[in-house]
């Protein structure tokens, strides 16, 4: 599929087919990442579609998605591989029983560190077959993990001491995301193409709602988009993203509403706001919000 995409516009059309509406800048960044074999580093506020982009790319390119969710304290073993110790122990016992108590130690040791007992975690999985590798929320990981990731991105290979080198025959398309809870080191950003994702404008958000929820009416889609845009202008702890717009729309559709008013909004704010302080602040201004 990659070879068939001749321009950013064609990639945008392919993403559109999955329900993801990419603007010109994002489509160009994604196209260049594909053609140049460079990771794509996507940064922006939560809910702007960074993770959804990787999902859409995997679908559009007809590649499997391999996702590594970063968190504080994540290390190479959790991200790359580990050995299946219980199965290795059972294997040793079986060798001892078969050898009638006489065990060739060197041969037994070699047999333990084979593909059979290797548990591939996301980064190793991504080296073994063409895929889209999503390294989600890299800003939650620590400096040591970033340094480890640098080598893998540079070489598309990793060496496992007991096993040997694993090198990607076809490097994965790597998408890294960050909510900017901390600054990611320049060394990592230099190896990537960079794109900052903004919340969509009003017209694009209406289009996203209608594309992702085909049954929604144009009036309701516009009312939700306008309300969400007003909420983003308020001083909230967690401004709503596109995911929350979609959740709100689905909630209203479930209630069989075809219009959004202050009373209905008050009953369904939990679909779009996730902090009690935000709920209180918005409920106090609902009449002005829907004036």
Account of the 3D structure:
- The chain has a five-stranded parallel β-sheet, with helices on both faces.
- The relative contact order is 0.13.
- The chain has 15 helices and nine strands.
- The mean pLDDT is 90.
- It starts with 7 loop residues before the first helix and ends with a helix.
- With 291 residues, the chain is α/β, with parallel strands linked by helices.
- It has helices at 8-16, 24-36, 50-61, 76-79, 85-98, 105-112, 122-128, 143-155, 186-190, 202-212, 218-232, 242-254, 262-268, 276-283, 286-289, and strands spanning 40-44, 65-69, 81-83, 118-120, 132-136, 157-160, 164-167, 173-178, 193-197.
- Helix 1 (8-16) packs across helix 2, helix 10 crosses helix 11 (218-232) and helix 10 (202-212) packs across helix 12 (242-254).
How do the helices and strands line up, and which of them pair or pack?
Elements lengths: L7 H9 L7 H13 L3 E5 L5 H12 L3 E5 L6 H4 L1 E3 L1 H14 L6 H8 L5 E3 L1 H7 L3 E5 L6 H13 L1 E4 L3 E4 L5 E6 L7 H5 L2 E5 L4 H11 L5 H15 L9 H13 L7 H7 L7 H8 L2 H4 L2
Parallel strand pairs: 1-8, 1-9, 2-5, 5-8
Antiparallel strand pairs: 3-4, 6-7
Helix pairs in contact: 1-2, 10-11, 10-12
């Amino acid at each position: 599929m990659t070879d068939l995409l001749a321009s950013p516009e064609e990639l945008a059309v392919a993403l559109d087919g999955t329900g993801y509406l990419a603007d010109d800048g994002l489509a160009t960044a994604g196209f260049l990442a594909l053609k140049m074999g460079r990771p794509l580093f996507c940064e922006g506020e939560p809910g702007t579609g960074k993770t959804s982009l990787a999902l859409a790319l995997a679908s559009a390119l007809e590649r499997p998605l391999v996702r590594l969710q970063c968190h504080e304290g994540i290390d190479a073993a959790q991200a790359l591989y580990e050995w299946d110790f219980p199965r290795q122990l059972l294997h040793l016992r079986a060798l001892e029983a078969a050898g009638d108590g006489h065990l060739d130690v060197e041969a037994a040791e070699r047999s333990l560190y084979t593909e059979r007992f290797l548990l591939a975690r996301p980064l190793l999985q991504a080296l073994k077959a063409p895929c889209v590798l999503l390294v989600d929320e890299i800003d939650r990981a620590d400096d040591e993990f970033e340094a480890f990731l640098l080598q893998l991105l540079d070489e598309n290979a990793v060496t496992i001491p007991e096993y040997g080198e694993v090198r990607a025959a076809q490097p994965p398309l790597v998408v890294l995301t960050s909510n900017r809870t901390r600054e990611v080191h320049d060394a990592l950003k230099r190896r990537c193409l960079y794109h900052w994702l903004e919340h969509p404008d009003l017209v694009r958000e209406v289009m996203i709602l209608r594309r992702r929820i085909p049954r929604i009416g144009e009036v309701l889609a516009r009312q939700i988009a306008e309300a969400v845009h007003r909420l983003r202008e308020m001083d909230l702890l967690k401004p709503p993203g596109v995911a929350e717009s979609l959740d709100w729309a689905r909630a209203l559709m479930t209630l069989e509403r075809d219009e959004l008013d202050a009373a209905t909004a008050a009953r369904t704010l939990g679909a779009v706001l996730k902090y009690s302080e935000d709920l209180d602040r918005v409920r106090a201004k609902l009449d002005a919000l829907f004036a």
